[in-house]
Amino acid sequence: MLLDIGCGSGLSGETITENGHAWVGIDISPAMLSVAREREVDGDLILGDIGYGLPFRSGSFDGAVSASAIQWLCNADRTEHNPVARIRCFFTSLYACLSRTARAVLQFYPESISQADLLQNEAMRAGFSGGLIIDFPNSTRAKKYFLVLDVSTYRRLPQALTEGGYQDVPTGVSGGKRTEARECHRLKKPPKHSVAWIKQKKERARKQMKEVAHDSKYTGRKRAQRL
């Protein structure tokens, strides 16, 4: 049994059915679910906001897929919405409703590197292992981001697609720890604890409505050791 997160009109579900799997779809849009019912898709359909968590029992699914849905968790569409809390609630409930051998593959379009980093960090915080894969990383139009998440054991990540075929994925998360140097190089992130890294982290905190000290000429400088 597979879970289709943000199933929409059921296009992904049809592919799941064609490959011989049963599935359940959840989506926030009543209109899209109505289209799915009119198309008579085989999966069970549920109306729900994944930012409030997934309403399923522990270990209900053998895997999960999602296409262009989880990036919307980063938006505050209502005054009571806290993006970080919604993302955390989603990944915690996803981890709980998957079986111990399950894998989740979540395709999404982040607005920025920090947004992709936030989603990945919260997935790891929930208990997943795995990592981020980018298909066609040098293309503006064809580039696609995938979070490939495993529940209980670390498995080798799939190969990313490039214009020349496949390439080995240079990063992953094993035991909850990232290969940081390669991750920084691939996402063009500044080195950890550098001035740019500190400013980027502070800017991310500001966007999350947290209180952050103002930048100054001393930002990122090493403090002299006290005697």
Automatic annotation (TrEMBL):
Principal subcellular localisation of the protein: cytoplasm
GO BP field: rRNA (guanine-N7)-methylation
Ranges for domain 18S rRNA (guanine(1575)-N(7))-methyltransferase Bud23 C-terminal: 156-224
InterPro entries hit by this protein: Bud23-like, Bud23_C, Methyltransf_11, SAM-dependent_MTases_sf
Location of the region described as Disordered in the Swiss-Prot/TrEMBL record: 199-227
Domain called Methyltransferase type: residue spans: 3-76
Biased segments, Basic and acidic residues type: 206-218
GO MF entries: rRNA (guanine) methyltransferase activity
Keyword terms: Cytoplasm, Methyltransferase, Nucleus, S-adenosyl-L-methionine, Transferase
SUPFAM superfamilies assigned: S-adenosyl-L-methionine-dependent methyltransferases
GO cellular component assignments: cytoplasm; nucleolus
Pfam families noted in UniProt: Methyltransf_11 (PF08241), WBS_methylT (PF12589)
Entry superkingdom: Eukaryota
Cell compartment(s), UniProt: Cytoplasm; Nucleus
Homology family: Belongs to the class I-like SAM-binding methyltransferase superfamily. BUD23/WBSCR22 family.
Protein name stated in the entry: Methyltransferase type 11 domain-containing protein
